Amino acid sequence: MSERVVDNGGRQRFELDLGGKLAFLDYQRAGSRLYLNHAEVPVELRGHGAGARLVAGALDLVRERGEQIVPVCPFVHAFVQRHPGYAELVAR
Q: pTM for this one?
């Protein structure tokens, strides 16, 4: 099972391959800001931390690239609230 989040820019989403099942986080780009709109994890993998791994991996990529986020998705918003180390990524 891959644990590496990749940015599929063509589809405007971050993806995490979970043993052949795909979790993803849709975004829209506006300059150096990414509007994180919707996270989706396969039903059978929910409740096992896959969503948290997806969001953490996506935010790590955002940080590496010096970008900012607008957490539209409630799951992403809650994740950032629970993990204040990512708070500096939120656009003001």
A: 0.93
Residue 4 main-chain phi, psi, to 5 deg: -100, 125
Q: Where are the alpha helices (DSSP H) in the chain?
A: 50-65, 74-82
Q: What angle do CA 20, 86, 34 make, to 5 degrees?
A: 70
Residue stretches of the chain with pLDDT short of 50:
1
Provide the number of structural domains found in the chain. Answer: 1
Question: What range does the domain containing 31 cover?
Answer: 5-89
Q: Which residue has the tokens 């991996």?
A: 57
Sequence letter at residue 77: H
In whole angstroms, what is the distance from residue 82 CA to residue 16 CA?
Answer: 21
